[in-house]
Every structure is written in structure tokens, then in C-alpha cells.
Amino acid sequence: MFEVLENETLAPALHRMVLRAPRIAAARRPGQFVIVRRAEGAERIPLTIGDADEAAGTLTLFVQAIGAGTRDIVAVPPGGCLRDVAGPLGQPTHIENWGRVTCVGGGVGTAVLYPLAKALAAAGNRVTTIIGGRSAPLVILEKELADFSAEVRVTTEDGSRGRQGFVTHELTELMADSATCPRAVFAIGPVPMMRAVAELTRPTAIPTLVSLNPIMIDGTGMCGGCRVMIGSEARFACVDGPEFDGHQVDFQSLADRLTMYRDHEAQCRVGLQP
Amino acid sequence: MLNNLSAKERLGIERVKMPEQDAIARSRNFAEVNLGLTLEQAMREAQRCLACKSRPCVAGCPVEVAIPEFVTALAAGELTVAARILMGDNALPAVCGRVCPQEVQCEAKCVRGARGLPVAIGYLERFVADWAMANAEDLAVESRPVPTGKQIAVVGCGPAGLTAAGELARRGHEVRIFEALHDTGGVLRYGIPEFRLPKAIIDAEVARLSRLGVDIECNVIIGKTLTLGQLREQFDAVFIGNGAGLPVMLGIPGENLKGVYSANEYLTRVNLMGAGQFAESATPILRGRNVAVIGGGNTAMDCVRTARRLGAERAMIVYRRGESEMPARVEEIHHAKEEGVEFVMLTAPLAVLGDTQGWVRALACQAMELGEPDASGRRRPVPVSGSAFELPADVVINALGTRANPLLTATEPDLKLNRWGNIESDAQGATSLPGVFAGGDIVRGGATVILAMGDGKRAAAAMEAYLGQV
Ligand SMILES: Cc1cc2nc3c(=O)[nH]c(=O)nc-3n(C[C@H](O)[C@H](O)[C@H](O)COP(=O)(O)OP(=O)(O)OC[C@H]3O[C@@H](n4cnc5c(N)ncnc54)[C@H](O)[C@@H]3O)c2cc1C
Ligand SMILES: Cc1cc2nc3c(=O)[nH]c(=O)nc-3n(C[C@H](O)[C@H](O)[C@H](O)COP(=O)(O)OP(=O)(O)OC[C@H]3O[C@@H](n4cnc5c(N)ncnc54)[C@H](O)[C@@H]3O)c2cc1C
Ligand code: SF4
Ligand code: SF4
Ligand code: FES
């Protein structure tokens, strides 16, 4: 059992949760994730470790409630417990000083991006952060990111906050000027966003890292369910990733596989009830 | 009852048939297929044993269960004695009685098999173990030995880890098992389905270990949450039994289509997470109408029989050799056939074919014929030219096998591995690192429950000797 210490709503359906998990807090590095199971019978849900306090033995998670599993998790109040928390899983981000980097976050991806951007800044990079969402309430962590970013640019699709449009517009602008053009780009968000960013940086071959979110079960390389195509090779996102070279990722196959259980129809599409 | 039978009378008794759930009914439920013998049936079967002085059957058992002795006690109706003998040699008899490949182990060596059918040692083992679990709780409750003050870490809660932990706890050591998943049992829980091995049996065995004082901590992944180095610092010795959990991929086009599973994923969803079995499970699973399972081992049989239970109209085994070359247990093949599983033999998959939405629609296949024997001594399948065909399927399950999972071993460069990534150890389980022992599938590659248990038992003895020296 893992005790929830804090649970705060940051935006509609987006929660920041702090829980006690001393071993994971001590072992984790930026870019890694945990697998959380709310209770007996519940799904195993992968969630990035947003932050950790080794001395206090705590982890911070940012959870967007998009389905039954994540809704159950964010419903746990402080003092309540999560049955299982396993990790840290996946490879830590390779952090180096590139000089000037751009971090691009979309939706809840911004939360996943946060520990990475923080580590990049700590390594001496000048970090420009671009965050986007459909509308103002979905733009998250702006203040927290501003603490260490040289600049934070905000976009919304409806123009209710920052510039109207997509994060890719801002990135195009940065890339157009040699004084602001990043040496590396880190993009985390919905699959279409990561794919668009990768396409943008491909012609100039700016190293571009994306963080993939396939459906997972064990998170230890045992089931193969999280396989993604990187170049012509099948790799397991839970052990080899979740971060990969965006120019090598087969986004179509990833997007497709994410719809495998999209709705109950899909589950029963081909089969019968016994 | 009669237990002073003459050899002739014993030879006259016919081998018992295991009562089974009706094949049609069971092909749609997850309840256990084999129902177990009655006391009368078990005693009568036990009377078939000739109590051979040379004990050939014992040599066929990897943990050398005292077969003639426990069977003789059973024949006399002395169940407590039988149970005590059996449990002295085998920590998980209720499991082994169900899943051991007896036909190639103990029963293969039974003299009665030379002319007729061998004594049904597996059924008898299961009977005695189940009887003990239901009627002799006190037998299972062992008094805790005097603590030695030594602390031992066990990595993995499968049969190898459970056995090693039990043996070490009985010697008075403080044992802690670290398990990566959220539940115990390893393949016994996430791989082998309920209809062959009910989960309640694993629970009972685990409870027995807990009463002995073994501490089991789930959700701890060695190599990630804690390193092997940390375990070596904090414990006096370490046993690694982390299994062979890494799926071998098909490596054919279409492997990423929706509806293609590895056996590990498919079985884990159903067995560990309860998908399709329990209404309260949140885990989804695709219930195929036409399910093609590629492979011919126990894992393939478990997948195809599971698919049938999840509602498949056609559940098919696709195997590139013939039926007699299949590595699966004879009983599993037989049960699968009774349950309506189709066997598409001498057939190799070429590609998984999809529709425009990315869902599986068929398996492209190639007919094979058997040529010259290969390195394994089995005749090598060779393609028959011009024989490609399509097998309609909406779910394809890859049951080609598993390899050593590198998650733990990759973090410890000093731990010597062989070229397949398995940990190298001596006959007693000692690895290249002092105080670190290993056994089960991580050493052998995909093997059997009883071999993993044998490794755990031998390693525990070697660890005892090691602890005496340090
Ligand atoms: C390595 C990794 C790190 C992640 N980090 C975070 C994080 O920090 N915060 C966070 O809120 N979410 C994160 N996710 C996504 C999160 O795991 C999914 O949102 C969650 O599993 C959905 O489960 P559910 O039961 O709530 O929704 P479901 O009802 O299962 O699904 C709702 C919808 O989401 C889709 N979906 C299912 N599984 C996933 C998935 N793994 N990723 C994306 N979409 C999915 C479904 O197809 C469906 O359309 C991460 C995923 C991965 C693989
Ligand atoms: C579907 C299937 C059917 C089978 N049927 C039979 C049968 O009928 N009869 C038979 O004799 N054999 C059968 N086998 C083989 C048998 O199950 C295995 O040989 C046996 O379970 C191996 O035991 P083990 O203890 O070595 O490993 P496992 O049973 O694999 O247990 C290893 C445990 O370690 C855990 N682990 C892994 N990595 C780590 C880590 N880094 N940190 C902590 N924990 C970790 C795993 O989660 C797992 O719980 C079958 C196998 C499969 C897959
Ligand atoms: S443990 Fe297995 S091989 Fe040994 S006697 Fe029992 S059934 Fe036979
Ligand atoms: S070989 Fe067969 S008959 Fe002889 S002791 Fe063993 S089980 Fe009994
Ligand atoms: S989640 Fe099972 S292999 Fe990655």
C-alpha cells in the first residue's frame, strides 16, 4: 500500500498527487515512470514520475483523468492508499548540455515534460519551453516551468490563452532564427503533436526526442505489449524507452495500436460474449 | 481396505481414469478440467504400485520424491503418513501433481509402464496434496525454527524462488522475497490458466510460506527499484529466480496489427488481471472469433484453450511440424482436442494480414513437409513450394517461447551470463558472484516447474553451506 499525501486539482481532470514511495524516490531519475494499480482488479496504469523528494521519500505524479483507470486514481484523497506502485521503470533521459534546447509539451504531456525540462536546465541548457492545449484551462504548469525556463511560450487552439494556434507554430518561429534555433528538441504530448514536431525538425536534422505512451502491462519487458517500431526494429517502450529518436518512430502504428481497446465496441467487435 | 495384495492382484488392477469436467461445458468455463480422484479411486490406483526395491520412478523425478513410500502409505489408507512423506520432498505437491510432465519423468520410469500403463503418480500426488490442504492444516503448519540471524533476499516469486525461500526459512534464516509484479507465483499465476492450476492452490502455498515467516514484497523490481548490489550489501546471501520473461517475437510482417498478442501478454491479461474471466476486472481483452495460436508447446495449448473459453468459434494451433513433434504435454493436446481446438499442422506463418483499419484479418501460411532430422533430432520442416494459403483469423497469438529477461542481469556486468543471456551457475546454483545463487528458468531457459523447484532446493542447501563459512 502506498499512501497518498497530497491531491490537488491543477486543471479540469488534471491532478497533482504526492505519494509515499521511499525506495522509488531514491532510485528514480528524470524520464522514468511508475506503474500504479489503484485497487484489486484495477488496471495497471503507467505514469511518469513528475518529481521526487528523496529525503521525504515522496513522488509527485501528474495525472490526467481520461478513462476509468485514471479517474479512479485521482479520486483517492490524501490519507487514502494506492494498492500498487512499481518502478522506477524505463530508461532515464540522457541529459547533456546542448547549449540551447526547446521543450514542447502538449496537454498532460507537459507534466511528463516537466522533470525532463528541469533536468536539462540544471545541466546548463538555455531552455525555451512551448506549452499548448486546446483551451486555457488545459494549459498547465506554466509557472513551475517558468522557474527555470529562459522563456515560456503558450498556445491554445481557441486563443483563450497565449497565442492562438499550435505549438508547432512557435517552434517554426524559433527554428527560423539562427539566434533562437534549438540544438535539440524534446517533445511530449499527444501522438499527432509529437509526429508534427518530428516532421518539422526532420529536414534540418535537429535531434528530436519524443516520449511514447503505448499501452503497457508489466512494464518490465515481459509481455511485449508496449512494442513500438523504431526504424525497422520492434522495441519495448517500457524497457528501451519511453523516449526515442522522434525521426525514427513509426507514429502511425503507435496511434493505431492505442485504439485497440478504445471502446467497448472495439473489445467485442470481433468476438462473442461467452 | 485391501493392502496385502499379491503382485498378481496388483497387476490385475486397471489404471484409474481421471474424472473430468464434460468437454463441451468446460470449453466455455475456467473451472478446473481435472476433478481429482475419490479416496477409493486413489487407494485402488495406489495398490497398483509394486513398491519396487530399485525405485526406478524416483530416479525419474527431478526432486526425488519418495514415490513408493508415499504411494504405499496411501494404498494402506494412511493419508497423514503419505502427506508427511510427500511434503518432506516436495514443497509444492498440489502444483506438481497437476502440471509436471509426468509422462516423461516419474511415470516414464515406472516398471508398470513396460507392460501396460504406469502408476498414475501425478494423480496420486495431487490427491494426497489436496487431501492435506483440506484436512490436515496442522500438517502444513510447521513450527518456526530457531532464528539464525542471517538475512536472505530472494528475487522472484515463482516456483524457484518460493522453494528456495521455504527451504531457507525452515533452516531459521530470515527470508524476504522481492517480486516485480503485484502478485505472487510467477508463471504459476500469470501463465498457467485457472483451468489447469487453480489460483487458490498458489494462494495456499504462499500462505504456508508466510506462516513460516517468509516476507513477500511485491512491486519491487530488482535492477530498478533496488539493485543487486544493494541486496548484496543488505543481505547475507541472495537467490535469483527471476524466470525467463522475455517474449520471442515472430519477426514476420504484420506483427503490430491490432489483434496480435504475445502469449505472455494474452495470458497475463486473462490470468493475472482477470480479463474476460471476472466481471470486476478492468482489463480488456480481444475475444476473437477465429483465433490462431502459433506454436506447439504448453504455452500454445494454454493460449488456444483460453481463447476457446473466451468464446472463439475456431481456436487453432498453427505448428510447422507434425503433431508427434509437438513439445506440449500429451494430456494438454488431448484435452485441447476434446474441447474443439483445431490442429493446423505442418504449417508455417508467413505474415499477419490486416484490414484497412489495422485489425488482423488473416494469417498468411505456407505448408511444410518433414525433411532430414535437425540438431534437435527432430525432422526439419521444409516449405512445400506453391502451397501458400490464407487462414482467416481476427486474433493471432505468438507462442514461440521466451528468453532470459535482461532487466536485472544488464545492471550487473560482473554476473556471468551464457551466450543466450542466462545466468551461469554451477550444479549447486552458485553464480560468478560470491553469495549470489540462481536457479529456474533464468539459468535453464524455459524449463519446467519441477526443475525450477529442484534448483531452488539445491541452491538453498548450497547457501546454507556458504552462510556457515562467512
Ligand atoms: C510511459 C508512460 C508514461 C505516462 N505518463 C503519464 C502521466 O504522467 N500522466 C498521465 O496522465 N498519463 C500518463 N500516461 C498515460 C496513461 O497511462 C493513460 O492515460 C492511462 O493508461 C489511461 O488509462 P485509463 O483507464 O484512465 O483510460 P482508458 O479508459 O484505458 O483509455 C482512455 C483513452 O486513452 C487511450 N489510452 C489507453 N491507454 C493509453 C496510454 N497508455 N496512453 C495514452 N492513451 C491511452 C485509450 O485508447 C482511450 O482512448 C503515460 C503513459 C505511458 C505509457
Ligand atoms: C504458459 C506456460 C505454461 C507452462 N506450463 C507448464 C507445465 O504445465 N508444466 C511445467 O512443469 N512447466 C510449465 N511451464 C514452465 C514453468 O512455468 C516454468 O519453467 C517455471 O515457472 C519457472 O519457474 P521460475 O521460478 O524459474 O520462474 P517464473 O515462474 O518465471 O517466476 C519468476 C518471477 O520473478 C519475477 N521477476 C522477474 N524479474 C524480476 C526482477 N527483476 N525483480 C523481481 N522479480 C522479478 C517475475 O515477475 C516472476 O514472478 C509453463 C510456462 C508457461 C509460460
Ligand atoms: S514432483 Fe513431478 S516428477 Fe516428481 S514425482 Fe511428483 S509428479 Fe512426478
Ligand atoms: S516404479 Fe512404478 S510400480 Fe515401481 S515403485 Fe515406482 S511407482 Fe511403484
Ligand atoms: S509493458 Fe510489457 S513489455 Fe513493456
CATH superfamily of the largest domain in chain B: FAD/NAD(P)-binding domain
The SS-based structural class of chain A is: alpha/beta
Number of helices of chain B: 20
Strand content range of chain B: 15-25%
Oligomer: heterodimer
Largest sheet of chain B: 5 strands, parallel
Going by helix content, strand content and strand pairing, the class of chain B is alpha/beta
Spell out the CATH superfamily of the largest domain in chain A: Nucleotide-binding domain of ferredoxin-NADP reductase (FNR) module
Radius of gyration of chain B: 23 Å
Secondary-structure topology with pairs:
The complex is a heterodimer of chains A (274) and B (470).
Chain A: E1 2-11, E2 14-20, H1 22-27, E3 33-37, E4 45-53, E5 58-64, H2 68-74, E6 81-82, E7 84-89, E8 100-106, H3 109-122, E9 126-133, H4 142-146, E10 151-156, E11 163-164, H5 167-176, E12 184-188, H6 191-201, E13 208-211, E14 227-230, E15 233-236, H7 237-240, E16 243-245, H8 251-257, H9 264-268
Parallel strand pairs in A: 8-9, 8-12, 9-10, 10-11, 12-13
Antiparallel strand pairs in A: 1-2, 1-6, 2-5, 3-4, 3-7, 4-5, 13-16, 14-15
Helix pairs in contact in A: 5-6
Chain B: H1 7-12, H2 23-26, H3 39-46, H4 56-59, H5 67-75, H6 79-89, H7 93-99, H8 106-109, H9 121-135, H10 137-140, E1 151-155, H11 159-170, E2 174-178, H12 187-190, H13 199-211, E3 215-217, H14 228-234, E4 237-240, E5 260-262, H15 263-272, E6 290-294, H16 298-309, E7 314-318, H17 330-338, E8 342-344, E9 347-354, E10 360-373, E11 379-392, E12 395-398, H18 406-409, E13 436-438, H19 441-444, H20 449-469
Parallel strand pairs in B: 1-2, 1-4, 2-3, 4-13, 5-12, 6-7, 6-12, 7-8
Antiparallel strand pairs in B: 9-10, 10-11
Helix pairs in contact in B: 3-5, 3-9, 5-6, 6-9, 7-9, 11-20, 15-16
The complex binds flavin-adenine dinucleotide (2 copies), iron/sulfur cluster (SF4) (2 copies) and FE2/S2 (inorganic) cluster.
